């Protein structure tokens, strides 16, 4: 089992920045690829970004490429999502997730956090 706890979500104005954190506990964090997903009201959960176990490989959704950066610190068992140039359409609950292989699909991730709300006002 891997337990994941997200933090850092809040209300921010359009154009602003936020950094989300996801702290992991349980099994060895460095064994897992990590992903960030988001879900807006009335919409399906969608992929945002993913990072391999060693941080060498990253994937991004087209909608966030160039604005968001995923990173990880295996010594701290934490994955981050730096979000810049935020837009109102980035408003959603953001979830981190763990998988044995890096991927972009919800179904590829076995462990999930409870989510953190990000609201971007225009």
* Structural class assignment: mainly beta
N-to-C order of helices and strands: EEEEEEEEEEE
Low-confidence stretches: none
Total beta strands: 11
Tell me, rounded to a whole number, the average pLDDT.
Answer: 97
Query: How helical, in percent, are the residues?
Result: under 10%
Number of helices: 0
Major sheet summary line: 7 strands, mixed
**Fraction in beta strands:** over 45%
CA-to-CA gap between the ends? Answer: 39 Å
- Identify the overall geometry: globular
- The radius of gyration computed from the alpha-carbon positions, rounded to a whole number of angstroms, is 13 Å
Describe the structure.
With 122 residues, the protein is mainly beta. 0% of the residues lie in helices and 51% in strands. The chain has no helices and eleven strands. The termini are far apart. The relative contact order is 0.32.
List the helices and strands and how they pair.
Blueprint lengths: L1 E6 L3 E3 L4 E9 L6 E7 L6 E6 L6 E3 L7 E6 L4 E6 L8 E8 L11 E2 L3 E6 L1
Parallel strand pairs: 2-11
Antiparallel strand pairs: 1-3, 3-8, 4-5, 4-9, 5-6, 7-8, 9-10, 9-11
